[in-house]
C-alpha cells in the first residue's frame, strides 16, 4: 500500500474541502437585484466549484490508488521560517512602514537562504527598498506606508 | 484704555494663532482619491482639476487611483481617513448618492463633507447613427408593440441605468437593460447593433458620432442645441452627471474653506477650462455651502427615485 | 494612405526633443516593466501627469514608447528569475527561465527582444493600413461573439498544462473561482467576501501573479536549494540567434503576431491572454511539443511576439473609434482627450498628420525598444551573476512594493503572500501555475459575456447560435478539442 498521505491526496483533499466551504457560502443569498434575463450571480462560480470538487475527488482517488508525486527532499525548517517571515512582514507592513520593515524582510530572506556575507547583505537590504521607494514614492507619487513619526 | 489695548493684543494674538493654523496647511502633499481607473472619465477630469488646484494653492496635490465597485471602494477609503485635509476625494454623482442608497456601504451622506462641484454633464438619450428610431416616441411605440428595446450603460446603480429606468417608467414601458459599461463600451454596443439606446453623457454623441434623441434635463444644452429635452416632450426626467470634491466629515472648517476657494480659483484657470472643454465637459461651479445643500437634495432625490423605478432601497 | 501627411508626420518625429523624450520613455518603460508588480498600466499612469505639460506629439511619443517598452520589459525577469515583470510575460517564463537555467540567458534575451520588435512592427503595419476597416470588425463583436471567443481561449488551458491535463484543468478552475470573488457588477451581490469590504472590489491579477510566481519562487528556494547558474558557463550579455535558427520559428512568429494583433483589436481578451494563447497555439501545432517548457525558443518567440502585437491591435479601436482596446490604451486615450485630440472617425479625416504620427511613433518606439533592449540586456543578464539568495531578497522587496501599489490595499498584500504559499505547495503537487492565471483573467469576461448574452437573448442560450461569428468560434473550439482525441483514436487503431 503506497503512502496514503501524499501530494495528490493532500491536493485533492485540500481543494475538495475549500470547494465545499465555498459552495456552502454561495447558497444563502439575500434579496438579489437581478436584471431581467440575467443568470443567478453565483451560477458560474457554483459550476466551477462543482467541477473543482469533482476533479479534487478524482485526484484524491488517484493519489490513494497510485501514490503521489515525489517532490524530492524538502527542507521544511527554512521553508516555514520564510513563510513566517513574510507573514509577519505583511502584518507589520502598515504599522512599521515600508522603509523599516522591508529591509528587515530582505535581510531575513537572504539569511534564511543561507547567505552570510554581511556587507553585500546589508547593502542589498537597504539599496533595493530605497531604490524602489525613490522610484515609486518620489518619482511616481505612489505612496507606500510611512514609518510612524517620520514623513517617509 | 489699557483693557481695550490688552483685548486688542489678545485678539491679534488669537487671530495670528488661527492664521498660523491656516498658514501651516498644506505642509505636505494632499492625496486626492480618484475612485476610478486611470484614463477613465472621472480620472481625466479629476487630474485636470488637481493640476489647476495645484497652481491655485501653491501646494502639491497627488491623484491616487483606487478603482473598484462603482467608485465605492475609493470613496470609502477616503471617508475613513483622518479628517486632517490631507486626503480628499473626487467623485461623480452615482458613487455618492445612488450607491449608498442601493446597498450597505461603509459611508453615506453623513460621512462626507462636500467641498465644491466643478462640472455637471447633461445626459442624452442616444441611438446608433443608422438606427431606425428618430425620436423618443418611436422608441416608446416600438416598446409598446412588444419589441425588445435594449438600453446599455454601466453597472446597475450607475446613472445610465437609473436614467433609462426613469425614462421607461415615465412612459409606462420597460426596457431591457444591458450593463456593458459606460462611455466606449456603451458606444460599441450601440454601433454594433447589440443595444438600441444609451442614456449616457451627452458628450458621447459627438465623440462617437451617435444620434441624439433627447436630453434628460430641464433646459436644452449648448452642445446639442437642436435636441429637445424630455421636459419639452412632456416628461420631467432630469438626471445629469455631476462631479465634485469631497472630504471626510469633521474636517476643520478652515481647511474646507481653503480647499473650496482653491477649487473656485481652479475652475477659472484657462488651462482647466481648455482641458475640460476638450473632453466635452459642461462646467458648473458650486461653492461649499451651495454644493452642500445641492448634495443633500440630490441624495434625497435618488432615495425617492429608486423605488419608483423598481429598485429596492437599502437601509 | 496619404503620403504627404506621412512625410509631415515623419518630420514631426524627427524633432530632437521628441526623440529624446522617447528614448527616456523607452528606458523608463523597460525598467518599470521589468519590476515585478508594476505593469504597463502603472507605467503609463506614472508618466500621465508629465504628458499634460508636453505638446501633443511629444505626449503621444512618450506614451507609445512606454507602452511598447514596458510590455517587453516584463519578459526580462521572466527569463532571469522566473518572475514575469508584467502579466503579459507570464508565458515567456515557461520557456525563458529553463533556457536561462541552462546557461543561455543571453540567447533568450535575444529571442525576446527581436520577437517583441517584430510583433510590434507587424501590428503597427496592420494598424496603419487597416485600422478603420478592422475597427468595424471589432464593433461586430458583441457579448455573444466575445463569449464564443473566450470559450475558445479557455481551451488553451490544456496546452499550457505540460502533460497534466487533470491538474491543469483544476488550476484553471481555481483561477475562475478566484475571479468571481467580490461584488458582482451585474447584480451588486457580494460573492465570497465574508464581510470584508476591501474584498468587495475583488482580486487583482497582479498580486496573484506576483505571489504565485515570484514569492513561490522565493519559498521554493528555501525548500530546495537552487544551485543558480553559477555552476555553468553563463553567457552574459545579449545574443541574437543566427538567421538559420530563425527560419524554423518564422511560422510561429507570424501566427503569434496575427493572434496578438487580432486579440488586441477585440475587446475583452487582453495582452496576457493573447500571449498565453500564442504560446498554446505554437505548442499545439509544433512537431516537438514535448520540448516546450524546457527552453524551446519557439515558446519564447510565440509569447513575446503575441504580447507586443497587442500594442498595435489595441490602438485600432482606440484611434479609429475612440474606444480603448485595453486598460493601457484607456490611459492613453484619457491623455489624448485632455490634449484636445478626440480619436474617432473625425480624427482620421480631420487630422491625418496626427494619425500618421501615431504610426510613425509606434514604429520608432519599437525600433528604440530593440536597440535599448539590446544594450540594457547586457546589464540585465549580469543580475544572474549575483548569488541566488540576494536575487531572492530583491524579489521580496519588489514584490511587496509592487503588490501594494496596485490598489493601495492590504488585501492585495495578503493575497500575494497567501498565493505564494499556495504556489509552493502547488509546485510540490506538480500543478501547473499558468492555467490559474488564464482562468483568473478569462473568468470575469467569460461570466460577464455569458450573462450579457443571456440578458440580450432573454435567457435563451440557443439563440447564441444565431450569430455567425459565434458559431465560427464554437466550431473552432469543437475542432480543437476533438482533434487530439481523434488523432489518439486513429493511432490506437494502428
UniProtKB/TrEMBL annotation, chain A:
It comes from the Bacteria. This is Tripartite tricarboxylate transporter TctB family protein. Keywords: Membrane, Transmembrane, Transmembrane helix. The chain crosses the membrane at residues 9-27, 47-65, 85-115, 121-140.
Automatic annotation (TrEMBL), chain B:
The keyword rRNA-binding does not apply. Keywords: Signal. Pfam families: TctC. Residues 1-20 form the signal peptide. The keyword tRNA processing does not apply. It comes from the Bacteria. InterPro entries: BUG, Bug_dom1. Belongs to the UPF0065 (bug) family. This is Tripartite tricarboxylate transporter substrate binding protein. It comes from Paracoccus onchidii.
From TrEMBL, chain C:
InterPro entries: DUF112_TM. Residues 19-438 form the DUF112 domain. It comes from the Bacteria. Keywords: Membrane, Transmembrane, Transmembrane helix. The chain crosses the membrane at residues 20-48, 60-81, 108-131, 143-162, 168-189, 201-223, 258-280, 327-348, 354-377, 389-407, 413-443, 464-486. PANTHER family: TRICARBOXYLIC TRANSPORT PROTEIN. This is Tripartite tricarboxylate transporter permease. It comes from Paracoccus onchidii.
Amino acid at each position: 500500500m503506497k503512502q496514503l498521505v501524499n501530494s495528490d491526496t493532500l491536493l485533492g483533499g485540500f481543494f475538495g474541502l475549500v470547494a465545499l466551504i465555498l459552495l456552502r457560502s454561495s447558497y444563502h443569498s439575500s434579496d438579489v437585484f437581478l436584471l431581467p434575463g440575467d443568470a443567478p450571480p453565483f451560477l458560474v462560480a457554483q459550476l466551477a466549484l462543482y467541477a473543482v470538487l469533482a476533479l479534487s475527488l478524482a485526484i484524491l482517488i488517484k493519489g490513494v490508488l497510485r501514490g503521489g508525486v515525489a517532490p524530492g527532499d524538502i527542507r521544511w525548517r527554512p521553508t516555514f521560517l520564510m513563510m513566517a517571515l513574510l507573514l509577519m512582514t505583511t502584518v507589520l507592513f502598515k504599522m512599521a512602514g515600508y522603509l523599516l520593515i522591508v529591509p528587515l524582510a530582505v535581510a531575513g530572506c537572504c539569511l534564511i537562504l543561507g547567505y552570510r556575507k554581511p556587507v553585500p547583505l546589508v547593502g542589498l537590504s537597504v539599496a533595493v527598498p530605497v531604490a524602489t521607494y525613490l522610484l515609486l514614492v518620489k518619482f511616481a507619487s505612489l505612496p507606500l506606508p510611512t514609518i510612524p513619526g517620520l514623513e517617509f | 484704555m489699557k483693557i481695550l489695548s490688552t483685548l486688542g493684543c489678545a485678539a491679534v494674538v488669537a487671530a495670528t494663532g488661527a492664521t498660523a493654523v491656516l498658514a501651516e496647511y498644506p505642509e505636505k502633499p494632499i492625496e486626492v482619491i480618484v475612485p476610478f481607473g486611470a484614463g477613465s472619465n472621472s480620472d481625466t477630469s479629476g487630474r485636470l482639476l488637481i493640476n489647476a488646484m495645484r497652481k491655485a494653492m501653491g501646494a502639491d496635490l497627488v491623484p491616487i487611483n483606487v478603482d473598484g465597485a462603482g467608485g465605492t471602494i475609493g470613496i470609502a477609503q477616503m471617508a475613513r481617513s483622518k479628517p486632517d485635509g490631507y486626503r480628499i476625494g473626487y467623485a461623480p454623482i452615482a458613487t455618492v448618492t445612488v450607491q449608498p442608497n442601493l446597498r450597505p456601504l461603509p459611508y453615506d451622506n453623513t460621512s462626507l463633507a462636500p467641498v465644491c462641484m466643478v462640472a455637471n454633464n447633461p445626459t442624452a438619450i442616444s441611438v446608433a447613427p443608422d438606427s431606425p428610431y428618430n425620436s423618443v416616441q418611436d422608441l416608446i411605440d416600438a416598446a409598446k408593440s412588444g419589441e425588445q428595446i435594449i438600453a446599455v450603460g454601466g453597472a446597475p446603480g450607475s446613472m445610465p441605468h437609473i436614467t433609462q429606468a426613469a425614462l421607461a417608467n415615465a412612459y409606462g414601458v420597460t426596457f431591457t437593460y444591458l450593463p456593458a459599461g459606460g462611455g466606449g463600451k456603451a458606444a460599441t454596443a450601440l454601433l454594433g447593433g447589440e443595444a438600441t439606446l444609451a442614456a449616457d453623457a451627452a458628450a458621447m454623441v459627438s465623440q462617437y458620432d451617435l444620434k441624439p434623441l433627447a436630453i434628460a434635463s430641464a433646459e436644452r444644452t449648448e452642445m446639442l442645441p437642436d435636441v429637445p429635452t424630455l421636459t419639452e416632450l412632456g416628461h420631467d426626467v432630469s438626471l445629469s452627471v455631476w462631479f465634485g470634491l469631497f472630504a471626510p466629515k469633521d474636517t476643520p472648517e478652515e481647511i474646507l474653506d481653503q480647499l473650496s476657494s482653491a477649487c473656485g480659483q481652479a475652475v477659472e484657470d484657462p488651462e482647466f477650462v481648455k482641458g475640460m472643454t476638450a473632453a466635452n465637459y459642461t462646467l458648473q461651479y458650486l461653492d461649499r455651502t451651495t454644493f452642500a445643500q445641492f448634495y443633500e437634495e440630490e441624495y434625497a432625490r435618488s432615495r425617492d427615485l429608486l423605488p419608483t423605478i423598481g429598485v429596492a432601497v437599502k437601509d | 494612405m496619404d503620403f504627404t501627411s506621412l512625410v509631415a508626420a515623419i518630420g514631426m518625429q524627427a524633432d530632437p526633443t521628441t526623440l529624446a523624450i522617447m528614448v527616456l520613455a523607452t528606458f523608463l518603460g523597460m525598467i518599470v516593466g521589468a519590476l515585478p508588480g508594476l505593469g504597463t498600466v502603472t507605467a503609463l499612469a506614472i508618466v500621465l501627469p508629465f504628458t499634460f505639460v508636453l505638446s501633443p506629439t511629444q505626449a503621444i511619443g512618450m506614451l507609445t514608447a512606454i507602452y511598447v517598452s514596458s510590455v517587453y520589459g516584463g519578459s526580462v525577469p521572466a527569463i532571469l528569475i522566473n518572475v514575469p515583470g508584467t502579466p503579459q510575460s507570464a508565458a515567456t517564463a515557461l520557456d525563458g527561465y529553463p533556457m536561462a537555467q541552462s546557461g543561455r540567458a543571453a540567447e533568450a534575451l535575444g529571442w525576446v527582444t527581436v520577437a517583441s520588435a517584430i510583433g510590434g512592427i507587424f501590428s503597427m503595419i496592420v494598424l496603419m493600413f487597416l485600422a478603420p476597416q478592422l475597427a468595424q470588425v471589432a464593433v461586430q463583436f458583441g457579448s455573444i461573439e466575445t463569449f464564443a471567443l473566450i470559450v475558445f481561449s479557455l481551451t488553451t488551458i490544456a496546452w499550457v498544462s505540460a502533460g497534466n491535463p487533470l491538474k491543469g484543468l483544476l488550476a484553471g478552475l481555481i483561477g475562475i473561482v478566484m475571479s468571481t470573488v467580490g461584488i458582482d457588477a451585474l447584480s451588486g451581490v457580494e460573492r465570497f467576501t465574508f464581510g470584508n469590504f476591501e474584498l468587495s472590489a475583488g482580486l487583482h491579477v497582479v498580486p496573484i501573479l506576483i505571489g504565485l510566481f515570484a514569492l513561490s519562487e522565493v519559498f521554493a528556494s528555501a525548500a530546495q536549494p537552487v544551485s543558480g547558474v553559477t555552476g555553468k558557463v553563463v553567457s552574459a550579455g545579449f545574443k541574437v540567434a543566427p538567421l538559420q535558427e530563425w527560419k524554423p520559428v518564422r511560422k510561429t512568429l507570424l501566427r503569434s503576431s496575427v493572434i496578438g494583433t487580432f486579440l488586441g483589436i477585440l475587446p475583452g481578451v487582453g495582452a496576457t491572454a493573447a500571449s498565453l494563447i500564442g504560446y498554446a497555439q505554437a505548442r499545439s501545432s509544433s512537431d516537438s511539443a514535448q520540448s516546450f517548457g524546457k527552453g524551446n525558443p519557439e515558446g519564447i518567440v510565440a509569447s513575446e511576439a503575441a504580447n507586443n502585437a497587442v500594442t498595435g491591435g489595441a490602438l485600432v479601436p482606440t484611434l479609429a473609434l475612440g474606444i480603448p482596446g485595453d486598460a493601457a490604451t484607456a490611459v492613453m486615450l484619457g491623455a489624448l482627450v485632455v490634449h484636445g485630440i478626440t480619436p474617432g472617425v473625425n480624427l482620421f479625416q480631420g487630422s491625418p498628420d496626427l494619425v500618421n504620427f501615431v504610426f510613425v511613433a509606434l514604429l520608432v518606439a519599437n525600433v528604440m525598444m530593440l536597440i535599448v533592449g539590446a544594450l540594457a540586456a547586457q546589464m540585465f543578464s549580469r543580475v544572474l551573476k549575483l548569488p541566488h539568495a540576494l536575487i531572492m531578497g530583491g524579489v521580496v522587496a519588489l514584490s511587496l512594493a509592487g503588490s501594494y501599489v496596485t490598489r493601495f490595499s492590504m488585501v492585495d498584500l495578503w493575497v500575494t503572500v497567501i498565493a505564494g504559499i499556495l504556489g509552493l505547495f502547488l509546485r510540490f503537487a506538480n500543478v501547473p501555475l499558468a492555467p490559474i492565471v488564464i482562468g483568473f483573467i478569462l473568468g470575469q469576461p467569460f461570466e460577464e459575456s455569458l450573462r450579457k448574452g443571456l440578458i440580450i437573448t432573454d435567457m435563451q442560450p440557443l439563440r447564441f447560435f444565431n450569430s455567425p461569428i459565434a458559431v465560427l468560434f464554437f466550431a473552432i473550439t469543437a475542432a480543437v478539442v476533438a482533434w487530439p482525441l481523434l488523432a489518439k483514436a486513429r493511432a490506437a487503431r494502428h
